[in-house]
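During the first year of the project, the team set up a workflow for recording each protein of interest as an amino acid sequence followed immediately by a discrete structure-token representation. This format lets reviewers and collaborators read both layers of information side by side without switching files. As required by the reporting guidelines, we include two representative entries from the current panel. The first entry is reproduced here exactly as it appears in our internal archive.
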Amino acid sequence: MLQHNSQAPEMSGRGRSASRKCVAAQVVLAEVERNPGSRPGRRAGMGPAERLLGTFLLLLSLTARRTESALEAKQEVPITQCWMAEEFIVSRECYSCTEFETKTITECSNTGFIEQVNCAVSKRADYKSCRSVEMEKQVFWKFVGGVMGVTVLFSLLVTYRQRTLDLRALEKVRKQIESI
């Protein structure tokens, strides 16, 4: 039978919420252990909503356990870039990476733009990924163009649907008048 570890370290808000969900799912698991031949939530009087809730809690519990174990396994990563720990001066403003830089400098893979920085304490030159104003403008105008395209498409669709409904209504009125 599953048991809750009372010696677990104190968790923050998200961790506590996950452990509460684990406890709820452990109730479902305990039911399975008591009745190995039955499935959880198959008692008399339980409808599809309760079975779905039980399944959801079980999946949530498994996900929470996996997340908690991943957080425990995560180790402190040493800082390799000086600009993360020190003050720095930008020696070359944000620019687009060349093909060679994309292959050799890992910071280029994030956004395709980098800036060169000089750290104050270690006097080391390093690269930092950045977001370009040009790139942001392109992304914005692509979004605006997409929204406008969808607006035109749905406007045409609404107009077509309205005309179709108007023709059906006119045909219905014409048939009613003919039947008189």
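The second entry, processed by the same pipeline in the following quarter, appears below.
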Amino acid sequence: MQVVGLGDVECPQHIINFKGILGEMEGITARKYLETNNLIITKLLDLSSDFSTPFVIVHEPPYGVGTGKILNVNVGSRLTRSRILAYRPKVVFHGHSEVQREVYFNETKVISIGSGFLGQFVIYQGEGKYIYINLND
């Protein structure tokens, strides 16, 4: 099994089979470790972080879509939103949220993976298929 991180991972060297995308608050130690060990990904299986595939994984939720919430405050990125509108992927998975939720934004399914700190994860099976995991259920 491959573990794909959504950024802002404190100690990626302690996660077996880890590769990831960078978050906006990635610490310099984690960033250097990821870069030095070639663990930063832009594409894995049929997922991309650069919008080059129909299935996309990004750190931040799109602005105004309703899938990004932290401490009950809506959060989101205007850049992620504009890239969804420009590239029109089938599915966008994102982190940076404390809720597991999915909505349609235009014709794109936007999926909030939730928070690893809260025991929320998604197992990606390829071709846009996934399973929600909540360790607290």
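For the second entry, the following points were noted during internal review. The chain is about 15% helix and 35% strand. The chain has a mean pLDDT of 84. Both points are flagged for discussion at the upcoming steering committee meeting.
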